[in-house]
Amino acid sequence: MKIIATPNNQGDGITVFGPDGNAAHNPDGNVLKGERVVIEDAMVDFDGLPLDEQDGGIDCVEGANVLIRRCIVRNVGKAVLCGNEHGPATVTFEDSIIEDFGRRGPEAQYGAAVLMKRCLMRNWGHRDSFSVRAFGAWAHVGGYIRAEDCVFWQDSFFNGHFWEDLIGHIGQAWNDRPSRLWEYLLPGVCRGLTAGPGGGVSAVNCYAPWWVLLEGHDGPRMPKAEAMRLIARLAGCPEIGDRTVRGLREAVQLSAAKK
């Protein structure tokens, strides 16, 4: 697996532009541009890098069309951005992990369309990656996210930033003027899959703790045993199998340390 531990000249682990995007004049190996970009078996891990020295884990902007398969993004403040004011993006995630991040797991905006299949979003609002406010997957301003057979997991309700985070969401809601009260009062640790003004989300056969919101989920939720098996497979740690939730954090952390 290719490990990316330092930002490129865009401040990201990987930056993807569409064919007409304004890519850097002297792009390095992690600034990509094209009609269709495939990113496989890569890990962006900014462990120990201060937040003011990084921008995002993966940015897909300006008309990017991207397939992200068997990848991991961790220890970043802003995990994955899809779409910006200069153009939308079409992004598909398969069999990937976004964990220990502050927010954008992922964020879809400005017409971006995101499909997530068999993915794990874990520990948004992470203690060392938090700034301003936390959320998992969020679509707004014309963005759309669809999650299928995914797990949205938090090791703990308490991430050390509860009040700071809640104040940040109240401020964001004050700017956006949403019509739903929960958008003002729901703390980030509970925002697994949500839509802000102008955005849309949907999900099928996904799992989350009861206190994590999966807005737009249709039909039965994924059983816990199935969620555990998916986490075990994605983490490369099959021995955790159907262990209890109590032992999951230690098992996944052990697996991460081996990568």
Number of domains: 1
CATH class reads: Mainly Beta
Mean pLDDT: 87
Multimeric state: single chain
Q: List the total number of helices.
A: 4
Please give the number of β-strands: 21
Distance between the termini: 9 Å
Write the CATH homologous superfamily.
Single-stranded right-handed beta-helix, Pectin lyase-like
The succession of helices and strands, N to C, reads EEEEEEEEEEEEEEEEEHHEEEEHH
In short:
The chain has helices at 162-176, 182-185, 224-234, 248-258; strands spanning 2-4, 14-17, 31-33, 37-40, 42-45, 58-61, 64-69, 72-78, 80-82, 89-94, 97-103, 107-108, 113-117, 120-124, 137-139, 144-148, 151-153, 191-195, 200-204, 213-214, 217-218.
Walkthrough of the structure:
16% of the residues lie in helices and 34% in strands. The strands form three sheets. Strands 3-2-6-9-12-15-18-20 form an eight-stranded parallel β-sheet, with no helix packed on it. It is built from four helices and 21 strands. The protein has one domain (2-222): Pectate Lyase C-like (3 Solenoid), CATH 2.160.20.10. The longest helix has 15 residues, at 162-176. It starts with a strand and ends with a helix. It is of the alpha/beta class and 259 residues long. It is globular and about 45 Å long.
